[in-house]
């Protein structure tokens, strides 16, 4: 499809859910042999093997809250979104939430709470979380607003409801920007795509608070930019080992160690790769490759899935995979409604 087509919207939200659901199998594993990944993915195609339904985790649970809130309020409403996070957590606390964020979600359900951003600020001795929980649910922001300034502002605020450290919420902005650009067809020119992301993050990370957080956490002066430069170097190489990707970019639970990694997975899988079946399309390649990195597999595959799905569109996603994953059909319907919201706003209505 063309820029911002319905197929791209559907691809983005559905592939994000698939990444989360199929990635759950390997979350926390050191490094996963590609053979095991392919075995797991093959079992989705084989109905007789009865994989059953793969459940989604917190990544999808929270992304659904974001999408539903944006749709119901026809824009960003922090109170409404916070309420939905809290309600979702108390209804299904067993979705694999990060151990820190649970405190925030409990506080958000208090009716006495006057500032919905305060519980997030109290995390980790007042510094706030740098986990990837803001980034893992950022894709719907890119699908709700055609204007890049709205995407950045709302993705940041939406993340700050749980992640007040700049390394947490800037990761969410980066993820939303990657989905935004991919929806426009920007991955047709990968060099420009990564260049645009670097330019945006150079500006965001020039901020005083971001510089302060980076200093305190002993990171590079502009941590996301530094990682994106590494992505740009790695994407030019024809051969690169999984070990190198992990050591250069990480595969962990911090936004800094997973969002640039997810972006790399998408870029690396734009072409067919020797280690992956020839029959695989781009979305399948991207998800399979993300899982093979191990570590925070559900989240990296979820974020990479959203970016890749926005590029290749819904037709690149196997029906058999959709059928196996809880919430995939639902994501498809939300994508259609977000597509309408997006195109309403772009007409100034
Ligand atoms: O970021 P968050 O929502 O977790 C998301 C991850 C995804 O992989 C999901 O799939 C799920 O498995 O969890 O939850 P947080 O609790 O805010 O952050 C996750 C973890 O990162 C925390 O439990 C800490 O171990 C670590 N962490 C920190 N550690 C020290 N200091 C995050 N921020 C800090 C920090 O400031
Ligand atoms: Mg999860
Ligand atoms: Mg995870």
UniProtKB/TrEMBL annotation:
Catalytic activity field: alpha-NAD(+) + H2O = ADP-D-ribose + nicotinamide + H(+)
KW Translocase (keyword) present: no
Cofactor(s), names only, from the UniProt record: Mg(2+)
Pfam families xrefs: ADP_ribosyl_GH (PF03747)
Binding-site list for Mg(2+): 57-59, 296, 298-299
Cofactor note: Binds 2 magnesium ions per subunit.
Locations listed in the record: Chromosome; Cytoplasm; Mitochondrion matrix; Nucleus
Keyword Transmembrane helix: no
InterPro entries listed in its UniProt record: ADP-ribosylglycohydrolase (IPR050792), Ribosyl_crysJ1 (IPR005502), Ribosyl_crysJ1_sf (IPR036705)
GO BP annotations, alphabetical order: DNA repair; peptidyl-serine ADP-deribosylation
Assigned EC number: 3.2.1.143
Key words, A-Z: Chromosome, Cytoplasm, DNA damage, DNA repair, Hydrolase, Magnesium, Metal-binding, Mitochondrion, Nucleus
Gene Ontology CC annotations of this record: chromosome; mitochondrial matrix; nucleus
GO MF, one example: metal ion binding
Record-linked SUPFAM superfamilies: ADP-ribosylglycohydrolase (SSF101478)
Assembly with partners or alone: Monomer.
Family: Belongs to the ADP-ribosylglycohydrolase family.
Protein name, as recorded: ADP-ribosylhydrolase ARH3
Organism this protein belongs to: Mastacembelus armatus (zig-zag eel)
């Amino acid at each position: 499809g063309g820029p911002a087509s319905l197929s791209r919207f559907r691809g983005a939200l559905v592939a994000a859910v698939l990444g989360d659901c199929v990635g759950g199998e390997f979350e926390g594993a050191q490094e996963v042999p590609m053979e095991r990944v392919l075995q797991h993915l093959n079992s989705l195609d084989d109905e007789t093997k009865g994989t059953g339904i793969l459940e989604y985790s917190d990544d999808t649970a929270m992304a659904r809250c974001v999408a539903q809130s944006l749709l119901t309020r026809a824009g960003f409403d922090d109170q409404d979104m916070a309420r939905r996070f809290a309600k979702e957590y108390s209804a299904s606390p067993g979705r694999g939430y990060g151990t820190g964020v649970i405190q925030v979600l409990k506080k958000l359900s208090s009716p006495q709470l006057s500032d919905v951003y305060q519980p997030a600020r109290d995390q980790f001795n007042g510094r706030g979380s740098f986990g990837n929980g803001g980034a893992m649910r950022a894709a719907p922001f890119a699908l709700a607003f055609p204007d890049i300034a709205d995407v950045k502002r709302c993705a940041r605020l939406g993340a700050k409801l749980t992640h007040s450290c700049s390394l947490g919420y800037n990761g969410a902005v980066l993820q939303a920007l990657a989905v935004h650009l991919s929806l426009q067809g920007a991955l047709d020119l990968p060099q420009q795509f990564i260049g645009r992301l670097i330019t945006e993050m150079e500006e965001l990370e020039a901020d005083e608070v971001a510089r302060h957080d980076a200093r305190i956490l002993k990171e590079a002066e502009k941590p996301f930019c530094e990682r994106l430069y590494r992505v740009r170097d790695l994407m030019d190489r024809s051969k690169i080992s999984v070990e190198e990707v992990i050591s250069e970019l990480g595969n962990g639970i911090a936004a800094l160690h997973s969002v640039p990694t997810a972006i790399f997975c998408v870029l690396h899988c734009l072409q067919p790769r020797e280690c992956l079946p020839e029959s695989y399309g781009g979305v399948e390649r991207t998800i399979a490759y993300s899982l093979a990195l191990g570590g925070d597999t559900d989240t990296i595959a979820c974020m990479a899935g959203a970016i890749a799905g926005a590029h290749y569109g819904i037709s690149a996603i196997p029906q058999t995979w959709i059928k196996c994953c809880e919430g995939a059909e639902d994501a498809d319907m939300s994508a259609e409604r977000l597509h309408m919201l997006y195109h309403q706003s772009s007409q100034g209505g």
